């Protein structure tokens, strides 16, 4: 009899725990690959450091791509619109190219923007099956993907989507 009571209590506890875990999606992190990017200061930034509860914009780009340059110029004209979001700029090119990119754009001015290279690991590229750049994916503050864009990224749509 005593074992039956313990078993019932464990089942109730397990059920409650599972229900609470399932309901706790408000500030979940978005589903991201297990990436590691190297920032220009040499520090590593990983998917575990992405802030929960904030919209997230991930932009995969090449500093040498013409379409990427056009997007970046537009983005930084409106960067203040993203101040309540986290923005990740990720490339595969070597660190020296990222350093040059950071000298052309005011990335360090914004605490919510992280830029880094994944190098030749292609974890991010393969996870999203990226074929054209720039590539952007937008997550809402609950971690749900709300938009995916390649090559021509509508900045006005991104801005309206994060509000």
What would you note in describing this structure?
The protein is an alpha/beta fold and 163 residues long. The chain has helices at 2-23, 66-77, 95-104, 123-128, 155-162, and strands at residues 36-38, 44-46, 56-60, 86-91, 113-117, 135-139, 145-150. The strands form 2 sheets. The protein has a 5-stranded mixed beta sheet with strand order 5-4-3-6-7, with helices on one face. Strands 1-2 form a two-stranded antiparallel ribbon. α3 (95-104) links the parallel β4 and β5. The model is unreliable at 12-26 (pLDDT under 50).
Which helices and strands appear, and what pairs or packs with what?
Blueprint: H1 2-23, E1 36-38, E2 44-46, E3 56-60, H2 66-77, E4 86-91, H3 95-104, E5 113-117, H4 123-128, E6 135-139, E7 145-150, H5 155-162
Parallel strand pairs: 3-4, 4-5
Antiparallel strand pairs: 1-2, 3-6, 6-7
Provide tags for this entry:
5 helices, alpha/beta, 7 strands, five-stranded mixed beta sheet, 163 residues
Short description:
The chain is of the alpha/beta class and 163 residues long. 36% of the residues lie in helices and 20% in strands.
- The number of distinct helices, counting runs of at least 4 residues, comes to 5
| Strand line-up in the sheet with most strands | 5-4-3-6-7
Whole-Å distance between the termini? 57 Å
Task: Give the helix proportion (percent range).
Answer: 25-40%
Order of helices and strands: HEEEHEHEHEEH
- The number of E-state strands comes to 7
Q: What is the molecular shape? A: globular
Strand content: 15-25%
Largest sheet descriptor: 5 strands, mixed
Structural class assignment: alpha/beta
* Average pLDDT reading: 86
Radius of gyration: 20 Å
* Low-pLDDT windows of residues: 12-26
